[in-house]
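User: Fold this; tokens only.

Assistant: Input:
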Amino acid sequence: MRSRLQLLLQVMLVLIASLLGIVTNYATSENDAPWLLHLLQQVAIPAIGLLIVAMVVMQIVVHRLENPSPPPTDWPRDRVPYPGLDAFVEDEAAVFFGREAQSDDLTHRLHVPQNRPADRFLVLVGASGSGKSSLVRAGVIPRLRSRRWLVIPAFSPGPNPLAALAAAISTAGGEQESTGAVLRRLRQEPASLLSELSRLRGSRFRHTLIMVDQFEEALTLAGERERAQFLDALHACVTQDARIRVLATVRVEFLGQFLGTRHAELFQHPVAIGALGRNQLAQVVERPGGLVGLTFAPGVVEAIVNDVGADDALPLLAYLLQEMYFASGPGETVSEELYRSLGGVAGALARQADHTVAELGGGDDDISSVLKVLLRFVTVQGQEVARRRVPLAELTARERRVVDAFVDARLLMSDVGPGQEPYAQVTHEALFRQWAPLRQEVEVHAEQLRQRAELERWAEDWDRSGRSPDYLLTGERLTLARQWLRALQETGQASQTAQSLVESSQRRDLAFLRQVSDSIGQYALGAAEQQPEHCLLLALAALGECTPTPAARRGLMTALASSHLRNQLDGHTDTVRHIAWSPNGLLLATASRDGTARVFDARSGRPLRVLPSGGSMVEGVAWSPDSTRIATAGRDHVVRIWDAESGEPLLLLTGATDIGRQTAWSPDGRWVAATSRDRTVRVWDAETGDLGHELRGHRDDVWGLAWAPDSTRLVSASHDQTALVWDLATGTAVTTLSGHSDFVEGVSWSPDGRLVATGSGDHTVRISDAENGELRLLVRGHADYVWNVAWSPDGRLLASASSDRTVRIVDAYDAKVVAVLRGHTDTVWGVTWTPAGDQLATSSTDGTGRVWDLRPRGAESLLIEGHRKPVNQAAWSHDDTRIATASDDGTVRVWDAATGAVSGHVIEQADRVWSTAWSPLDDRLAISTNDGLFRILRPGLDSTSDRRGAVVECVAWCPDGSRIATGDHDGTVKVWSAQEHVVLSSLTGHQDWISRIAWSSSGRFLASASDDRTCRLWDVAECRQLTVLRGHDNYVDDVTWSPDEERVATASGDWTVAVWDTATGRRIEVLKGHEGRVRAVAWSPDGRLIATGSDDRTVRVWASDTLEEIAIIGVHQDKVTSVAWSRDGTRLLTASSDGTARVWLAEPDFVRLEAEARNRVFRVLSDDERRHHMLPPDP
């Protein structure tokens, strides 16, 4: 109507202009006008008429060009006039009715010049089923073509929108270039789209239209990267070329998501599709059928129009009309009975879906299995449900049968994508909104469909990147993807690309986690001694959250071997200033600046009682000798006596005029002493509370306090840099302990009462004679103030607590460091020994108390300690009940193999002991020493043989006990009679030291390892060399025979173990894995396993058949010097330069070890710690 009115107005304007010209002509006519004007006057009337006619014709032509006539209405009688659920397409414009006005309006919007680039991007929005696609394809596009527009074939983005655009451009160009060639160019240079369109437009076309249907697929099907590239390309087109227009149809519910992108300006002025009125709906029903002679009985059209009322009305109506046509045919009349039999507008689609399911039959194709297949064609984006393309190649034969049936029913459609890959999709989304079974199935599985959509977007991004590793999933996204994929696989909903993405990500993640696990293992090996708890946490994370690599297990065992921590005492909310172990060893008492003292069970760490001090900070705590009472000193100047069992206060000790610092109970139980900031030590009667002594003499605050074992003397420590020894009988200071250069706070008596240890702000500990004050030992090592010291009950060790957050334990005679306890996160104030002397407890500013084991236990089943220098070799007795160790400290020690206790006399030698070996028959020991002696001994008796010569490096008994072989530093192997102690034979040939020797199981053969980088095999009976094994690049340190004598294994300084064929001397395999010199190797008695020990501190076990490493079963704190199997092959005995021997289970229980490690940690890794070591986010 508007276009006709526009034409009428234009014609009227022409007529008015013409009349005006005539009037003007006559008004200006003059008789005396020049001859030319007279000529014009004579022809004016016919000329004006001709001009008017010409102008009217031209105006009509212009109008026709700008507003072309609707498409022709010719339609073949045998062609279906109703497309059903399919959208109308361009060649169906003749049967597209009801949208003429909106078609004209959209055409005009596109055709008029637009200055703003965003206005050249026209977005048509409406609900699903509102007719957007039909309006554009059958209404707008034919009109634009008649105006000399180049129309790029309409396309939907699909999962690869840039490829879909390339396919459309290729089609528009007559496929002169393949889709692949166009796509490659677009990917390499997005701006090439402009040149492509310009080339296609040429001079024949005035404008170009890119029509993108179902634009929301860029959100629901495409990945983020592809979507961004696609939008970038379209945005560039409308920005840089004013003759290009983009027309996009978008479901209204997705508009908000596009407004959230960086291309939001393109979507800010959408055009909404209008609703059809009753007259328009009647045209939609009647006029297409009329072109083929199909008529409707009276009242049918009105009934249909009345029944149209739902949001999905148009697709349901379209489907119904097609079904009515198929049921009637051209030239027939649709009756009301037919209309009702098809289910009306609302029921036609559902009836057809139900009929299709029924046609599929029962069995595997029941309704539930059909719905399961149809779910593959549905996706959920946010809260919106949309259709999804499914490649036919991903369908099983059974799924294809279902799909084919629904395609035949016109409820699904099949097509090919840009890459010519066939796919299927729902013909219209009305199917999963109007067919109740599928709608309900979608509602039930909405979350899973949403997850699948997200996973598939990730997969598409990865696939289109060329499956770049940069697009693989990690961390939380991979965790989610694994969970989603498992659920999708159970229902058959997982795409091949999604499965490939997760599998590839898992492989990369496993490789990465394996690297993380290895890295943590290496880190723990180096850092465990300094940060045992931290390394335990890391190793547990590596084993539990990454891949349990040998390096991670090694890290765990290293940290276990370094971890002294056994328990943590929690509950205080401020600094724990002091800690004391009860004399009976059962309880621990702590004093804290949170205003309380607390009592804990020493074994479990369970809090038992709280002793409140009225809010005043508690500085000191002490037990009575019978463990029934507790004394506390606080800042309220009062010492309190408590009942340890009930927690009730028993006595208040007063008299101090300033803050109380420390308190101590005399060993005989009679007295309680306390120090104060008023520079005084006070002593009260523990029963009555009467003040017995006030000891004055310090020139500054008095802090530390300790009783002599005999209860007759006290020692006090002060900020005046001294400690004073007081005689309680006279109340005078009898000895001044000086020498510190800063305050003295820690003080402790040796158990024998002869020495006093003091700890100072000058970072040192001094051990002084209690009688004359002479310095006996100066202990350095702390990096900050020393606050407290404590002597072990046996007087052998001294512990000191420091602001450097450590407790150092040293030998009280030579200051050698025995252990350093690390784990507190702030200043360590207090330290106390258990009465048994095997554990310590500490208190700290970090608000905790901690209990430590002096002898850390790692993965070993037995720890043997006692040597003061490296242990060179350890050997089992013939019955595995005892163990002998040879050390650089000049001793051979014999131990109980069950308890680790000394089981015999210590055999003192004049020099280091290189080697020891038990007789296989009795309790005789053969040893070799650095002073050139080879001896045969019985523990507890004098030597039975003494032979001197070249230094003997190693000894070995033959299996029957009749002979002993020795290896000398001069390269000679000697065989001795074990009874007569005479040399039976000498085997020469080596050019350097003999490191180790080994007998074969039969006793006939001998193997010798040497620093000359060879191993030699000897026939002892014939006293001849069999072969020389060459191939190592460094010293050969050890050798062992297989039980069947067919192979030997050699350990070398080149970090490897070599396995050799004894018959040919051929090297069979090289075992690699150690990260240091391999000093020890031993074959198990059953021949299944090979054990090795190395400078990398590890003990490893290898399978003798595959020659592959099985496990790291143990870690020492220094290099491993020997390994030996028990006779039953279940345990391994090792010696180490860390001064210990240890027994390990040959096949350790790592589950038990991990549980033990978890029992030794009392915090979790921080986010920063996890990030630093590249661990996954906290699970």
